[in-house]
Write a structure and sequence with these properties.
- The protein has a domain of about 80 residues: Serine Threonine Protein Phosphatase 5, Tetratricopeptide repeat (Alpha Horseshoe), CATH 1.25.40.10.
- It starts with a helix and ends in an 18-residue tail after the last helix.
- The longest helix is centred in the first third of the chain and has 35 residues.
- The N terminus is likely disordered.
- The protein is mostly helical.
- The chain has 13 helices and no strands.
């Protein structure tokens, strides 16, 4: 009998330890779950929180609230508006890649949305501002000396926007930015032409200058392009073509000073975030 009692006592002790272990483990798991799990909030509260943060210019936190709506309530009352405002919030937060992606996503998901013109406009805007790096902002580097592929993409996207929505409330903003981009792209082409002139590659320089005159006819760089052509024709002994360029300059640019022409269109950076219109609710 003593052996049986001792065995039962040991068995009860092991069972008790096992039960205690299970209880403690469950308590720890439950505690961790409560610490990490975020409290569920109604959709409207998230949206109002995002609006409050955007009014306070706390765009980083506004993005978090808007993304929460998109993740938790993808078919809710505020889902489409939240996706539209995400484009703006990302842009004002300085995350141009995310803004461009959000605009692309909105265009793909809501092609008939009342604010679809805004998505097209912001897509073009974000295409170029993401190419204007911090180095350029701080040291005012000459953008025409850099890769302007972003500017060309932005020009194409803003042109598409104006073609689709010529009467949009954002059309004046797009027109202003297109003027800047047109001049920048032309200046970039002529910077390459200047390089070819210094290298004595006059045919290559002529191609760049002609590209500006034929494909970007309304830029502020037309006189500069003509003068590059004149120089190249002179160096190649194409005297008749050189005289033709002189006639064109005399007829069209007699009152224009080259120094002023070179700076025209580049005195204002028209992509200021504080001047960017917000989406309509």
């Amino acid at each position: 009998m003593p052996l049986i009692v001792q065995y039962q006592s040991m068995l009860n002790s092991k069972t008790l330890k096992l039960m205690l272990t299970i209880v403690v483990s469950a308590s720890v798991i439950s505690s961790c779950s409560k610490d990490t799990e975020e409290v569920e909030r109604p959709e409207q509260i998230y949206y109002e929180l995002a609006q409050t943060r955007m009014r306070a210019k706390n765009f980083f936190s506004a993005v978090e609230a808007l993304e929460m709506i998109e993740a938790r309530y993808p078919f809710g009352r505020y889902a489409e508006q939240a996706q539209s405002e995400l484009i703006y919030a990302h842009y004002m937060n300085g995350d141009d890649e995310a803004s461009h992606s959000a605009a692309e996503k909105f265009i793909r998901l809501h092609p008939r949305h009342p604010n679809i013109d805004y998505a097209y406009f912001m897509r073009g805007l974000a295409s170029y501002t993401r190419d204007k790096t911090l180095f350029v902002r701080l040291f005012n580097a000459d953008l025409s000396q850099r890769d302007v592929s972003g500017a060309k993409q932005a020009f194409a996207e803003l042109t598409e926007f104006l073609t689709r929505f010529p009467n949009s409330q954002y059309a004046p903003y797009a027109q202003q930015r297109l003027i800047y981009l047109r001049n920048l792209i032309a200046q970039s082409e002529l910077s390459a032409a200047d390089y070819y002139v210094r290298r004595g590659a006059y045919i290559a320089a002529i191609r760049r200058a002609k590209y500006v005159l034929e494909n970007i006819p309304n830029s502020s760089q037309n006189l500069r392009a003509l003068k590059i052509l004149k120089l190249c024709y002179k160096e190649l002994d194409y005297l008749e073509l050189e005289n033709d360029i002189d006639l064109v300059i005399a007829q069209n640019f007699s009152d224009l000073v080259e120094a002023n022409n070179d700076e025209q269109g580049f005195s204002i950076w028209p992509f200021g975030r504080e001047k960017t219109p917000a989406p309509q609710s």
